[in-house]
């Protein structure tokens, strides 16, 4: 092959490629751009690769000139491709600048996370009880026999200790009741820990997770949150308990909320009541309460002849459900972002 024939092939290649790249720019079409790049600059079957084969047919004397020209054409094709790519994506190419960004379009709002409704409820309940003079405290979720049962006046033979009603762990516990440690079944355990380390008067509230192997339905879950309140002082009466709970309920659920107290039994309070709230033409229990049992006071070294107290444990999920009109507790734990984004 003569040198002139080889150079003509290269020139024809540049001209044809130039037209193809111009078409891609006019149509602002990335697919045409990529097809043209592969067609002319493809490493295996590109047209430039085919022309390169003719370099071996050029005479030995003309090869330096032919090789130089080949490299110039290769660089030119790469420049054509880059210019077209810049033009299509907003840069400047042979046909001038192509606008790829419409600054008049509204901006995209960044996706923001949402505080979970349970967390919102806990924060608000802490604030309400704080205004009533209660300090927020915390306790461990893995408890021993003493704090979860024995100190709360729950004897060894009490059905509340049944393995079917608790999540026991394979770790030895302390206390005369023996047995293994467990995931706490109530936040009342925090009462004992606070009273063991502090003298009266006591006015605390504790919010946290508790665990019970309940059958999951619209109002029950195996893990849920409780708000535990405790007040120990001189001359504390049942009337004080009812006043605090009514004030608490109206502060969170509104002044039109109806609540009622029903006689009940809990080992750690005497007398004991269950607290219901009116919701959708029916009554829904949202906690238990009562006067601290003298045996509980004795267990922590208090003299029940000198001090009395009241305690209550309320379900945070049910308060949240009542507040927001949620009729199934499972919605709170489904991790449905569309649902959670409402709060």
UniProtKB/TrEMBL annotation:
UniProt-listed Pfam families: Phe_tRNA-synt_N, tRNA-synt_2d
Family the UniProt entry places it in: Belongs to the class-II aminoacyl-tRNA synthetase family. Phe-tRNA synthetase alpha subunit type 1 subfamily.
Keyword Plastid appears in the UniProt entry: no
Recorded name of the encoding gene: pheS
Binding residue positions for Mg(2+): 270
Enzyme class label: ligase
GO terms for biological process, alphabetical: phenylalanyl-tRNA aminoacylation
Subcellular location: Cytoplasm
GO cellular component: cytoplasm
A molecular-function term among this protein's GO annotations: phenylalanine-tRNA ligase activity
Species: Blastopirellula marina
EC nos: 6.1.1.20
Predominant subcellular localization, coarse grouping: cytoplasm
Cofactor(s), names only, from the UniProt record: Mg(2+)
Name of the protein this chain belongs to: Phenylalanine--tRNA ligase alpha subunit
């Amino acid at each position: 092959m003569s040198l002139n024939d080889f150079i003509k092939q290269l020139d024809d290649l540049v001209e044809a490629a130039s037209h193809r790249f111009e078409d891609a720019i006019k149509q602002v079409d990335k697919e045409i751009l990529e097809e043209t790049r592969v067609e002319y600059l493809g490493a295996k079957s590109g047209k430039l690769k085919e022309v390169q084969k003719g370099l071996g047919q050029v005479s030995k004397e003309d090869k330096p000139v032919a090789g130089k020209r080949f490299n110039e054409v290769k660089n030119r094709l790469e420049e054509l491709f880059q210019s077209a790519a810049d033009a299509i994506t907003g840069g400047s190419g042979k046909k001038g600048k192509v606008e790829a960004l419409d600054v008049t379009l509204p901006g995209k709002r960044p996706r923001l996370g949402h505080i979970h409704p349970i967390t919102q409820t806990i924060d608000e309940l802490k604030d309400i009880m704080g205004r009533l003079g209660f300090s927020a405290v915390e306790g461990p979720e893995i408890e021993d026999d003493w704090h979860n049962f024995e100190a709360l006046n729950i004897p060894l033979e009490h059905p509340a200790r049944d393995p079917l009603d608790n999540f026991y762990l394979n770790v030895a516990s302390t206390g005369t009741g023996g047995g293994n440690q467990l995931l706490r079944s109530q936040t009342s355990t925090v009462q004992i820990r606070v009273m063991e380390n502090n003298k009266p008067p006591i006015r605390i509230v504790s919010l946290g997770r508790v665990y019970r192997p309940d059958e999951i339905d619209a109002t029950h879950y195996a893990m849920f949150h409780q708000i535990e309140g405790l007040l120990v002082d001189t001359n504390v009466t049942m009337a004080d308990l009812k006043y605090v709970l009514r004030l608490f309920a109206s502060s969170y659920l509104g002044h039109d909320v109806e609540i009622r107290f029903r006689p009940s039994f809990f080992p750690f309070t005497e007398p004991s009541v269950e607290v219901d709230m009116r919701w959708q033409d029916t009554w829904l229990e949202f906690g238990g309460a009562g006067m601290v049992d003298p045996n509980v006071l004795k267990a922590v070294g208090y003299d029940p002849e000198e001090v009395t107290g009241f305690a209550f444990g309320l379900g945070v999920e049910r308060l949240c459900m009542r507040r927001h009109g949620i009729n199934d507790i499972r919605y709170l734990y489904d991790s449905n972002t569309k649902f959670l984004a409402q709060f």
